[in-house]
Design a protein that fits this description.
Elements lengths: L4 H9 L4 E3 L4 H4 L5 E4 L3 E5 L12 H5 L2 E5 L6 E3 L4 E11 L4 E7 L1 H4 L3 E2 L6 E2 L4 E10 L5 E3 L4 E9 L36
Antiparallel strand pairs: 1-6, 2-12, 3-4, 3-6, 5-11, 6-10, 7-9, 7-12, 8-10
Length: about 190
Amino acid sequence: MILSDIDIRKRIEDGEIVIDPFDDPDLQIQPASVDLKLGEEFLEFRRTNIPCIHPNLEDEVTKYVRKTIVKEGDEFILHPNDFVLGTTKERVEIPSDLIAHVQGRSSLGRLAVVIHATAGVIDPGYRGQITLELSNLGTAPVALTPGMRISQVIFTELKTPAEKPYGKDRGSKYQDQKGPQASKIQLDPEFRK
């Protein structure tokens, strides 16, 4: 069952769902979702002439990104065919009986801005800011302003709470993340030596 605005408000009031900061609940809580705002940090991928990135080698994954900070009120220009990692302004906490899905807002989708490539699921038990996989599929650059509503989160109730929610007991790589995080795929069991 997807939570409605009434369910979302109650879960937030009861401290079961955490959204912090939560600047404008009346604006951000939609009929069946919560709008989240764009944070100030971005990871931009550098242009490179390497033949490929090997996901199992940490240096190769991280040395081709650079951090950019854009203060609220300023703009980050997302160029056509660009792919950057951004973050939500808000930190969220998802209880073990919910799963959340992060989606783009339709108003930005109509400008050809996509906010996630594949990472649309927020697991039960997750805590932290949400990394956004921002792409511009259009033909014109789009100005993104930190603090603008960029995405929406939809909460779905699980039939039973997760037995092993996201977190330390699972060895989860992104628990309590702050800011956008580059891939940590090299920490997956199949890549460990």
